[in-house]
Amino acid sequence: MTRLVLVGPPGAGKGTQAGTLSEKLGVPHISTGDLFRAHIGDGTALGRSVKGILDAGKLVPDEVTNEMVRERLAEADAQDGFLLDGFPRNIAQAEVLDKILAESGHKLDAVVEFQIDEDVVVDRLLSRGRTDDTEEVIRHRQHVYRSETEPLLNHYRDLLLTVDAVGDVDEVTSRVLRSLDEKPHGQA
Ligand code: ADP
Fold first, then answer.
1. Most buried pick, 112, 114, 169, 179, via CB within 10 A?
2. What is the sign of the dihedral through the CA atoms of 145, 146, 151 and 152?
C-alpha cells in the first residue's frame, strides 16, 4: 500500500515525477492542479468559479479543494494507494486529509519533498507557457508556497523524505524510489 504526498515549490517537477512514479508504484496520480484545469477546460461551474484564482496564482478556497479531493479519494482506483500532488497545500488541508484517511482506517506512508532553489524553478516555469506562468504570477505562487505550504514540512516531519530535485528527470525518479525503499518509517 502506498499513500504518498508530494510537496515542493511550483516548478520543482512534481507533476513529471508523479506521472512516472504512478506507473512504477501502480497507484493513481491525483493532482489538484490538473483536476482544476480539467474543470476549467470542461467549463463546469466549479471550473468557472476557480479560473480567475488559478490565473492569479492564488489558492482556491479550502472548502472547494477539500471537497474535490474527498470525492476523488473515494473513487475505486484510490482505495489501495495514491500519489497526491498539489494537496495538501496548507496545514488546514493537511488536517482534512488526515481526517479523510482516518475515516477509512488509513494513514499516509510518506511525504516526499522535492528540494530545489527558487531561481532554478522560476526559469523552468517561464519556459513552460501555461496561462498562470507569467513572471509576476510565478513569483506570487513561490511566495504562497513559502508562507502556506512550507510549514507542512514540519507538520509531516516524521513522514518526510527529502529528495534533491535538481538533475535529470530519470535521476530524480531514481532518488525518489531509492528513498522510498530506504524509508525507516511505517511499513508502506
Ligand atoms: P504549480 O505546482 O505549478 O503551482 P499546480 O498545477 O499544482 O501548479 O496548481 C495550479 C493552481 O491550482 C495553484 O496555483 C492554485 O491556484 C490551484 N491549486 C492547486 N492545488 C491547490 C490546493 N491544494 N489548494 C488550493 N489551490 C490549489
1. 112
2. positive
Residue indicated by cell numbers 508504484 = 25
* Stated pTM of the model: 0.92
Please report the DSSP string for 64-82 in residue order.
HHHHHHHHHHTSGGGTTEE
Ligand 1 in reach of 32 Cβ (< 6 A): yes
- Assess whether the previous peptide bond of 88 is cis (omega < 30° from 0): yes
The phi and psi torsions of 172 (rounded to 5 degrees) equal: -65, -40
Q: Give yes or no for a contact between 132 and 37, defined as CB atoms under 8 angstroms apart.
A: no
CA of 59 to the centre of ligand 1 (A): 6
- 141 appears as a binding residue in the annotation: yes
112-152 pLDDT, tens digit per residue, is: 999 999 888 988 888 888 888 888 999 999 999 999 999 99
* Lowest pLDDT segment from 13-27, 82-96, 129-143: 129-143
Looking at the domain assignment, is residue 22 inside a domain?
yes
The answer to whether position 39 is within a domain reads no
State the CATH number of the domain containing residue 116.
3.40.50.300
Number of domains in the chain: 1
For residue 88, CA distances in Å to 41, 50, 84 come to 23, 17, 8
Q: Is residue 15 part of a domain?
A: yes
Whether ligand 1 lies within 6 angstroms of the CB of 10 is answered as yes
